[in-house]
Amino acid sequence: MSISLVPGVDLHVIPTTKYKTIKLYIRFAETLSKETISQRTLLSNLLETNSLNYSTQADISKKLADMYGASFGFQVSKKGDSHYLTLVLNIVNEKFLPHHENILAEAIDFIKEVLFYPNRSEAAFDLETFEREKTNLIEYIESIYDDKQSEAALKLQDLYFQDNDQQTPSFGTIKDLEKVTANSLSAYYDWMLANNAVDILVIGDVDEEELLSLVKILPFEPRTSPFSPGFYHQPARQNLLEKKEQQPVVQSKLNLGFRTGIYYHETDYFPLQVFNGLFGGFPHSKLFMNVREKESMAYYTSSSIDTFRGYLTVQTGIEGKNKERVLELIQEQLESLKHGDITDEELLQTKEMLRTHYILSLDNGSALLEKSYLMSKYPKACLSDEEWLACLNQVTVEDIKRVANQVTLEAVYFLEGSLSYEED
Amino acid sequence: MKKINYPVVEETLYQETLDNGLRVTLLPKPDFHKTYSLFTTEYGSIDNKFIPINQKEYCQVPDGIAHFLEHKMFEKEDGDVFHIFGKQGASANAYTSFTRTSYLFSTTDQVVQNLETLLDFVQEPYFTEETVEKEKGIIAQEIQMYQDDPNWRLFFGILNNLYPNHPLHVDIAGTVESIQEITAKDLYTCYETFYHPSNMNLFIVGNIEPNAIMKVIKDNQLKKEFEPSAPIKRDLPSGTEPGIIKESSLTMPISKPKAVLGIKGVTPLPTTEKEQLIYKTAASLLFQLLFGSTSQNQLSMYNEGLIDDSFSYEFNLERDFYFADISTDTKEPERFVKTIEDILLTAKTSPDVTDERLALLKKRLLGKHLQSLNSLEYIANQFSQLTFETVTLFDLTEIIAQIQLADIYQVVDTFFLAENFSHFFMYPEEVKE
């Protein structure tokens, strides 16, 4: 069920008795822009830290504890041409509580407080909170780069994409954060609240009418031209881009970026899923079986697809001295798929895994909320479960060959570890 | 087969211990598409000295062998077990902890076939010198990857301080050197000793019909022959033996220093499982009272910039050992551990430890517990850790309700003893001493 509360603010409800909880998302979406990503991340940290009437994070935590350990927080993420800031709330269904307290109504009141009455006076966020959260966020971003697997993925993204907005991590950059002030963020917050496309998504054993009357207390204003999410397209590159860096770690990371030109529920979407499963998506894939198992050349190796940007990546953890051999092996696996070197068993197994993953996602509340959001924004995704599975089933070896021939290596990022295990 | 109803959480369990000693527990979840199955042996990285089955003398095996064995179970004469699960639409995995090794699959159909595969591959070992040699490279890579992970190193840094004479301080995967010594014969010795059905349990949760599934399991087990069951004799130092390293440090390529305070439990634990679960729940509530997100302590440390969002604390209790670790990224590692020590040593008079706050945190814990029951994986993992002689996961609502301030004080008195506190620091490489 989808209902428009006011123009640009929609409510989607998925009633089910399967869970012991009720889960709610409020998602703010706008065009992905380097200018605002860092602001949105900092804003999400400020909004979950305190508010006008819950002036410390301990006050917020106490309120959450009192609502039987409700979980609450904000997440930032990006998809295609969009950036999402999402409030996530999860509460226990009242029927399991000792006194069957109505914590859903209490929770919506709480959301109203933290979302619409932040901790600010005049036109600036509370300075103490602002400075502390800004410092912590900068340090958090630095720590992400301590994890070399994440660092390699981010460095590859930076290398592969030509556009500044697309190069930027979903959580922003330290440089951009440094420019944000308590005043500028306050102005941005007002703008976001008034102009972003808003979707409220709820899953659990809830009464739709009751929920509708509850969320109506959230004072959202109508939006004049709300943002509508889409894809990101990048022109093909003529030359292969390569970048190498050295760091004092033991394990080297070799990450590859490919262009697929294939998008979410557009032409060849299902063949691409099967291609990726065969290439490096599963433990029986060519990358895993040949690079890791047969040649013992990598601790991990896998591929993943981003169908909102027509992008495919391969990530590996290897010994630095094996780089050329691993690169060669990865390309051999792609070549074999281009030639349709796929057994019936491999094909069947890959489809079976994809089918299973799809059905498993039907048990996962967050996945169901995400799916319902995407269906409302990308109408071609509106398939019934039977239709989805039928599309998957129809994929042939010819389809996979066609996709494999479209997948082009455009960027190679190599993080070379300069330590050996013995020296460490 | 015993049927147990838990009306408060709307769950029904089915249990039976088979003739060969295997303990089976089933939890039907008809609304779910998924079935998740966990096959666990009470055998982990610390079990490195024991009397092998049908022998008389203790033998010492190389560090990391339980984990190595877990890896090798998946490889059979006719190929890779992952492959078989994959063909049957399931995903399989395994993990090794200090005290347990678990094998699992999750699937949406062909439950029976996948279950047979799980039972058969874990109960039919196949190790050769050649495949053992080949695995060493892969596991060495895995060990190296952990060596690069600062938080993993931090955790083992403090364990090394708390348990200098106990195998708990050794990385679960062993070291690059220790795994070189492993032979196929060693693997069979460990396997025959610890993978006896009487040392194992099977838990299945999801879209299953309990009677039909129990029959499948029984038929499968009847086809196999096992040695008569006998208690396993391990030679391990007591997990509560006093003696720690007070402080040590390490440098790594990190951006901000890290500090951890560890507490070793030296007071012997209560003997019954129910009492242990009460102790564990009380300890967990105590740490939330003192350091949780509703505490004044956490707020002050956060506002002073002494801790950041990486601040975390955990309490571990398994077999006969228990410990806690409280850690953060901080620019003032020394002041952090000092502050934590002060809080621990004045816990009983802390304004954060009151009846009112305990009531609030019990409410929170109950809610978190109920929320976690959405996850079939969580349920299975929790069940595989208990023997259920006196208590199960679904009794936790009752146990939380029972806990009083007196239980909390008892943990303070038996656990927060200054001589069992240890510090471990990790510094960025630039400030190498």
TrEMBL record, chain A:
Signal peptide: none annotated. Residues 179-354 form the Peptidase M16 C-terminal domain. NCBIfam families: YfmF_fam. Coiled coil: none annotated. GO terms for molecular function: metal ion binding. This is Insulinase family protein. Gene3D superfamilies: Metalloenzyme, LuxS/M16 peptidase-like. SUPFAM superfamilies: LuxS/MPP-like metallohydrolase (SSF63411). It comes from Vagococcus humatus.
Automatic annotation (TrEMBL), chain B:
Transmembrane segments: none annotated. Residues 182-365 form the Peptidase M16 C-terminal domain. GO terms for molecular function: metal ion binding. Residues 63-175 form the Peptidase M16 N-terminal domain. SUPFAM superfamilies: LuxS/MPP-like metallohydrolase. It comes from the Bacteria. This is Peptidase M16.
